[in-house]
Amino acid sequence: MGRPGLTIGVLALQGAFAEHHTILSRLKISHTTINPCLVKTPEDLRQCDALIIPGGESTTIALLARLAGLLDPLKIFVQQKPVWGTCAGAILLSESVQNAKKGGQELLGGISVTIERNGWGSQVESFEAAIEVEALREPEIPFTGVFIRAPVVLDFIENDARPPIQVLARLPESLLPRPEDGSTDDPAYLGQRRVVALRQGRHLLTTFHPELTRDDRFHDYFVRSCVCPPQH
Length: 232
Description:
- With 232 residues, the chain is α/β, with parallel strands linked by helices.
- It is 24% helix and 28% strand.
- The chain has a 7-stranded mixed beta sheet with strand order 2-1-3-4-12-11-10. A 3-stranded mixed beta sheet has the order 5-6-9.
């Protein structure tokens, strides 16, 4: 007997929400029907079993969420159901942000990390990298990470009330973009910056844009492992 249908929402206020919706629409999960839903109102959010917050501009997404009456419902949703944040969405899921725009950055919280906006610096706006991810289907095939003015994970925040953080992927040191002073060999610089995908409980964070490729394996992983994890 299969699982009932799952409604996976994509926050559709700004950014790459259409690309996420397209991948979800073609995703095939055995014994499960995936119903993608573009979330623009609190009513849309109430239908969802899980949510994806897309890449875009995190400050703009937060502002539009407040104007749509979604900010507080989103904060509640994050405490109750699985959420995946990509790029700007990763910033919104963090507990703390550095290099925020003037006036600050509203956050949803949910994942115990400190993150930095535009963490690679002004000279490195975008790049692609082949990433090894053991947790994905066909892990022997690297995943192409598309990084566009990407945030960077600076630190993990200790929180005994939450599950431990599981690192899913790191950027190889050889592929790290060089900061303006060229100090990539500085351990303080490297730190957690190599971490580009992680999971905490049923939440997922990627600092890159899986939705800008035709590879659906991260979406498959989110649904299979975070939204409807195997029953033991």
